[in-house]
C-alpha cells in the first residue's frame, strides 16, 4: 500500500472534488460557477499532491509552455464567463500536458480484468 502524507491526502480530496465539480458542471450544460470551482479545486489539489515547487516545474517547462498556456488560459476563460470555449481550451491543453502519461495509463488499464479484454479486441488494439 502506498503511504501518503496528510497534505497528499488533502490534495487527493481536492483533486477528486475538482474532477466531480468539472464533470457536474458539464452535465448541467456548462454551468460557469461549477466549472470555475472545479478548476480551482483541481489545480489546488494537484499542487497539494505533488508539491508546489514540482507543480511549477511541471507546468512551466520550456517544452510545455504551449500546453500550459492552453490549459491555464482555458481556466481563465471559464473564470471570466465563457465556459464552453474555456473547457475546449482546457481539454486541448490537458492532452498536450499529459500525453506522455497516456501510454502508461493504457498499459495499466490493459491489466484490469474486464477493461483489459475490451482494450485487447482486434478493432481497438494497435497492431504490433
Can you give me a brief rundown of this structure?
The chain is mostly helical.
What does this structure look like?
The chain is mainly alpha-helical. The protein has one domain. It is 75% helix and 0% strand. It has seven helices and no strands. Helix 4 (65-80) packs antiparallel against helix 5 (83-98). The radius of gyration is 17 Å and the shape is globular. It starts with 5 loop residues before the first helix and ends in a 9-residue tail after the last helix.
List keywords for this structure.
single chain; 128 residues; mainly alpha; 75% helix
Mean pLDDT: 91
Our measurement of the CA-to-CA distance between the termini, rounded to an integer number of angstroms, reads 33 Å
**Beta-strand residue percentage:** under 5%
Q: What is the approximate shape?
A: globular
Multimer state: single chain
Largest sheet composition = none
Question: How many structural domains does the protein architecture include?
Answer: 1
Rg measurement, Å: 17 Å
- Poorly predicted runs are none
**Secondary-structure content class:** mainly alpha
Q: What's the helix and strand layout?
A:
Blueprint: H1 6-27, H2 32-50, H3 52-59, H4 65-80, H5 83-98, H6 102-109, H7 113-119
Helix pairs in contact: 1-2, 2-3, 4-5
Amino acid at each position: 500500500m502506498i503511504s501518503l502524507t496528510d497534505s497528499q491526502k488533502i490534495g487527493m480530496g481536492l483533486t477528486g472534488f475538482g474532477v466531480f465539480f468539472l464533470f457536474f458542471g458539464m452535465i448541467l450544460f456548462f454551468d460557469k460557477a461549477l466549472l470555475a470551482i472545479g478548476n480551482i479545486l483541481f489545480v489546488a489539489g494537484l499542487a497539494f499532491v505533488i508539491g508546489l515547487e514540482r507543480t511549477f516545474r511541471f507546468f512551466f517547462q520550456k517544452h510545455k509552455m504551449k500546453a500550459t498556456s492552453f490549459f491555464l488560459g482555458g481556466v481563465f476563460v471559464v473564470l471570466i464567463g465563457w465556459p464552453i470555449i474555456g473547457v475546449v481550451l482546457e481539454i486541448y491543453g490537458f492532452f498536450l500536458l499529459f500525453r506522455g502519461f497516456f501510454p502508461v495509463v493504457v498499459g495499466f488499464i490493459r491489466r484490469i480484468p474486464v477493461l483489459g479484454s475490451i482494450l485487447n479486441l482486434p478493432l481497438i488494439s494497435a497492431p504490433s
